Amino acid sequence: MPAAQLSDGICNLPGGLVLDDGRRLGRAELRPLTGREEEWVAQHSDTPSALMSTKILSACFVRLDEVPVDSDIIRKMLVGDRDFLILQLRRMTFGERFAAVFSCQDCKVAMDVEFLAQDILVEPRPQDVATYIWQFQEPAMTRPPVRFRLPNGADQEAVANLGGNEAVDVLLARCVIDDGGTPLTHDECVAVIAEMDRLAPQIDLELDLSCPECGHSFTAPFDCTAFFFSEIRAQSRHLMREVHYLALHYHWSEAEILDLQRHRRRDYLALLNETLRPN
C-alpha cells in the first residue's frame, strides 16, 4: 500500500483523475459515514455496488485537491481509485481488521477468516493522461492505432446488471474512443483489455486459504466494496437501537441522531452507559 494512505481522512489516489484540461487530481479528503449513509445502504440492498459506491462517495467526499466533488466527478474516477476510497471509508468505519466467512471449495464447510486492511494489495499507477494509444505489435498485422481510456465509475454503473461476456463487451465498447475505422477482432479486444489492466491502478486481494475440516488449499478472491456494504447492512439493527437509546435519553430527533457520525454516536452511548450504570 502507498505510505501516505490515510491521515485525518486524507489520502493519495493510486491512479488519479486527469481532467480534460490536463490537470491531474490525486489528493482526496473523506469524512466518515453518518447514520444517514448507513441507513441508506441498509435500505437499498438490491442496489448494485457500483451505484452504491457513487452514492456513498458523493456523500462522504470533502474535496479532491481543490476541485468541488459531485456525483459526475465520482463517476469519472477510475475503478481502482473508487475501490481504494471505499477501502478507506471501511477503515474509518470499522477499523483495520476484517472478519469474513468463506466456504471451502471442496467440502463446502464454512470457515472463518481474519486479515488486516494492510493485507489488501494496492498497486499505484499514477495517471498522466486521460486517454491512451495502443498499436497491435504483431508484424504480420497492420491496422490503425486504437485510442482508449481506462474504465471508470460510469462504466461500472452501465454494466452493473449485465453478466459475464456481455458486461466485458459493453465496457470495452464504452472505453474504446477510436478504433481507427476498423472493428477490433477478438484477439485485439483481449490485447486492449490486457493493456488496460496493465495501466490501471489495482486494488486486489486473493486469500490463500486452507480448510480446517478437510485440509483442502485454495485461493479465494475478496471484494472489499461488496463486503463493506454487507457489513453495514448486517449492523442496521444496531443503528436502530442506537437511535432509540439516544432519543430516549437525550430527546434528540431521529434526524439529529442520524446526522451524527458512527464514532460520535458511540461516544454518547459510552457516556450514557457510564452515567446510568449502578454504583
Shape: globular
Strand order of the largest sheet: 1-2-3
Compute the CA-based radius of gyration: 22 Å
Work out the strand percent: 15-25%
Write the layout of secondary structure elements.
Elements: E1 10-18, E2 24-30, H1 35-43, H2 49-60, E3 61-64, H3 71-76, H4 79-94, E4 97-103, E5 110-116, E6 121-123, E7 132-134, E8 146-148, H5 153-158, H6 164-175, E9 176-178, H7 186-199, E10 202-204, E11 206-210, E12 217-221, H8 224-234, H9 236-250, H10 254-258, H11 262-276
Antiparallel strand pairs: 1-2, 2-3, 4-5, 6-10, 7-8, 8-9, 11-12
What keyword list fits this structure?
single chain; 279 residues; 3 domains; 3-stranded antiparallel β-sheet; 43% helix
Describe the structure.
The chain is an alpha+beta fold and 279 residues long. It has three domains: 10-124 and 203-234, no CATH class; 132-200, no CATH class; 236-271, no CATH class. The protein is 43% helix and 21% strand. It contains eleven helices and twelve strands. It has helices spanning 35-43, 49-60, 71-76, 79-94, 153-158, 164-175, 186-199, 224-234, 236-250, 254-258, 262-276; strands at residues 10-18, 24-30, 61-64, 97-103, 110-116, 121-123, 132-134, 146-148, 176-178, 202-204, 206-210, 217-221. The strands form five sheets. It has a three-stranded antiparallel beta sheet. The protein has a three-stranded antiparallel beta sheet with strand order 7-8-9. A two-stranded antiparallel sheet has the order 4-5. It is globular, with a radius of gyration of 22 Å. The mean pLDDT is 92.
